[in-house]
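If you are new to this repository, start here. Below is one unmodified record pulled from the training split, so you can see the exact layout before writing a loader.
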Amino acid sequence: MAHAWRACLPARVSRVRVPPPPLMDKIKILVEGYAHSGKGGIYIASCTTILIEHKGKKILVDPGANPDKLSRALAKEKLAPGDINIVFLSHYHPDHFLNIRLFPKHSIYDGTMIWKSDEELQFSGKLPGTDLEIIPTPGHAPEQASIVVHTKQYGVVCVAQDVFWWEDGKQQSQTKEQLMALVDPFAIDGDALRLSREKVLSLADWIIPGHGEMFQNPLRRMKL
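And here is the target side for that same chain:
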């Protein structure tokens, strides 16, 4: 009877193991893209170059066309070309790919293929060796693909090179109407481009275009 009170105590609760939160990717703009007329009829353009850190891998998206700008940006991050694990090309316009010359020993990845010397390996869905989703976003170019990145700071970021295109000083990204009405003088398929824009706006919190500033999806306002 002296210990009858013990019967009223709750049974020992088993410790519940809470799984660790999923690792979030990091994303950084190394070089912001630009496009403008120069002197003597010269046009000057290079794309935005992005560094994604994903599960210990460093993925470089669209190395651009200006080798000095990219080399300085990598050095600022204490990186050399050999520290990059994957070089990814969104599409095959020279202002996006000329700097692959800085990565002569790297395989080159695009939206559906890995190119290693004269070898071609096809894939679909996720960037091989990662959990990064690759989505087709044709219109500006037929082979164009975008990368979806899940980050702590920005939420879902879509690296959507040239899905939205503008020259310097002409960026209009405050409303969906502005974004959908953009005229792309280089687009090869306007209908496909409109569908790609709808797709990106349906999934991203923030969007990185090929030229100009990263911008917040007007349909998904999020406080940082």
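Two things worth knowing about this chain: The first strand starts at residue 26 and ends at 31. Residues 37 and 43 are 5 Å apart (CA to CA).
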